[in-house]
Amino acid sequence: MPPCRSRCRLESTAKNNLQDFQHLFNYFEDFDLFCAEFNIESPVFTCELIEVDSNFSCSSLLKAALGDPYAYAELGRMARDGVDAPADFAKAREYYKMAGPAGVVGLGKLMEQGKGGPEDVQGALDLYMATTQKHLDPAWMAMRPLLAAGFPLDAGQVKKYNRLWTKGLWALQGKWLNRRTSFNGVDRSVQLTVKVLYRFPAGRTRPDAYLTQSSGNLQADAVVVNALDKLPMDDPYLTPFGQPTPDIVASVVLMPVVDKPTMRAAQ
Q1: Is 206 within a domain?
Q2: Residue 38 phi/psi, 5° resolution?
Q3: Could you tell me the residue range of the domain that residue 226 belongs to?
Q4: 25, 64, 195, 232 - which has most CB atoms within 10 Å?
Q5: What are phi and psi of 115, to 5 degrees?
Q6: Helix (H) or strand (E) run with residue 180 in it
Q7: Lowest mean per-residue pLDDT among 55-59, 95-99, 179-183, 216-220
Q8: Orientation of helix 17-25 relative to helix 69-81, angle to 10°
Q9: DSSP letter (8 states) at residue 260
Q10: Are residues 160 and 29 in the same domain?
Q11: Which pLDDT does position 58 carry in this prediction?
């Protein structure tokens, strides 16, 4: 491969964008026109598309991938940041729109800032809300500061938000138990089901956890309740003004764990 001659930098604070960037680079492998460098150790994840042929610019390489939403999203970023040409926010908006869901956050940020078109913060929030499919996905994260600033959702949006929020609670509950809980010394020879009640004190997003139905194993009950107390949701369940977050009851099922027999060397 000839020496690298210029660089096109892509960066994100969301490290899950690595898959998106790799997907984009797959289009360029057959051209033998680039090499790529990744840095996922720093707080800002970066990767660089590095030209190895002076007859091609980064934007021309990206145009080879048109028809792919991630390519359009990257063209939007390049137009926004002035890569290979002066910044053009109107063009960036066009590219982000062509990217579909992959360009929603970029488009929404320009709408929030009034760049490349009219300022429309509520429109950006509506766009994020229509796009989000999972608690803490990029559209959800873009929506979070607007909700904190007091921008409203309509009844249908609140229903979707709370549905995704609840799925996020179950997902976090499972991760928390799997990664942060030690059941050493607890008899897990049979399936155990612990029922936990989450109660959210006023103004708090991290719930107090209470036992509502024992598994029959007091040790297991204590481990589960202690682990899930103050579960770090960090997003509120949305309720009408002045109304408390409803109590939520969750069933935690602990599958049996069979100890492996100790193997001894033959004498």
Answers
A1: yes
A2: -120, 140
A3: 155-254
A4: 25
A5: -100, 130
A6: helix 155-180
A7: 55-59
A8: 100
A9: P
A10: no
A11: 60
- Is residue 105 within 8 A of residue 93, CB to CB? The reply is no
Alpha helices in 194-263 (DSSP H): 218-228
Higher pLDDT, 47 or 258: 258
Q: Residue 111 pLDDT > 80, yes or no?
A: yes
Q: Does the pLDDT value for residue 37 go beyond 90?
A: no
Q: What average pLDDT is seen over the chain? A: 80
CA separation for the pair 41, 192 (Å, rounded): 40
R_g over Cα of the chain = 25
The whole-angstrom separation of Cα 156 and Cα 158 is 5
Which pTM was predicted? 0.75
Copy the structure tokens of residue 239: 């309720």
Tokens of 170: 């179950």
The C-alpha atoms of residue 168 and residue 180 are separated, in whole angstroms, by 17
Show which of 148, 183, 203 is a domain's final residue. 148
**Burial class of residue 67, CB neighbours in 10 A (0-12, 13-18, 19+):** exposed
Kindly tell me the burial class for residue 76, based on how many C-beta atoms sit within 10 Å of its own C-beta (0-12, 13-18, 19 or more). Answer: buried
